[in-house]
Amino acid sequence: MNVRTAFAAFAASGLFAASAAFAFGPDKTVAPAAAKPAPAHCAITDEVISDPAGSLKTTFNGKTYYFCCGGCPAEFAKNPAKNARVADLHDDIRAAEKKLADLKAALADAQKEDAPKKSAVAAPAAVASTAVYCAVTDEMFASPALAKATALYNGKTYYFCCPGCKTKFDKDPATVAKNADERAAKRAVAAAAK
User: Fold this and answer.
1) Which of 99, 136, 145, 177 is the most exposed place for a label (fewest CB within 10 A)?
2) Least confident of 42-46, 73-77, 109-113, 114-118
3) Cα separation values, 131 from 38, 58, 121, 125, Å
4) Domain that holds residue 171
5) Concatenated DSSP letters for 103-123?
6) What is the count of structural domains for the chain?
7) Is the full-model pTM beyond 0.85?
């Protein structure tokens, strides 16, 4: 058996991957194994599935779709093209929101690096002019870049302190947006009265 054949057999056995996960780094410490894959989401309810390997699933047009319970596969099968498209759009939205959050963080970092020094008197005005509030909890952020999630509804961007608040908004955007807009109007009236 030549070296190439031996290596191919070793790689195919799975031992290569296992040994690579615990390979020694240059500092003679054990390198950590690869990060866990991101959780999947149910193709019907969009609920998080923390263990995709142990969940119900189906393949449609070459892509695997996961389900949170026994009723979801039957629902998916009623109109697989539509349900796959909706699930794919949910995935696209999550990817876009993550990209947006990453861009906002990068922007905030870039602004910190180049920000001119301001006097202590000027800082409150700057914070007040750019402050945003969580649409659910009304928590204030000094900058939109500090929000953990955003949503666009009726042409307006709403900000959230955590992914849980974004989920609450997604379940009933009309009510949450109305309440957030009412609180914003009250803040504007109070600020104008000062």
Assistant:
1) 99
2) 114-118
3) 32, 45, 17, 10
4) 121-194
5) HHHHHHHHHHHHPPP--TTHH
6) 2
7) no
Q: Is residue 8 part of a domain?
A: no
CB contact at 8 A, 168 and 176: yes
- Going by C-alpha positions, the residue among 133, 178, 132 that lies closest to residue 153 is 178
For residue 74, what are its two tokens? 């039957």
From CA 119, how far away is CA 122, in angstroms rounded? 5
Say whether both 70 and 136 belong to one domain: no
Q: Is residue 158 part of a domain?
A: yes
Q: Are residues 166 and 95 in the same domain?
A: no
DSSP secondary-structure letter at 30?
B
Specify whether 41 is located in the same domain as 105. yes
φ, ψ dihedrals at 46, nearest 5°: 65, 15
- Using a 10 angstrom Cβ sphere, with 0-12 exposed, 13-18 middle and 19 or more buried, the burial of residue 61 is exposed
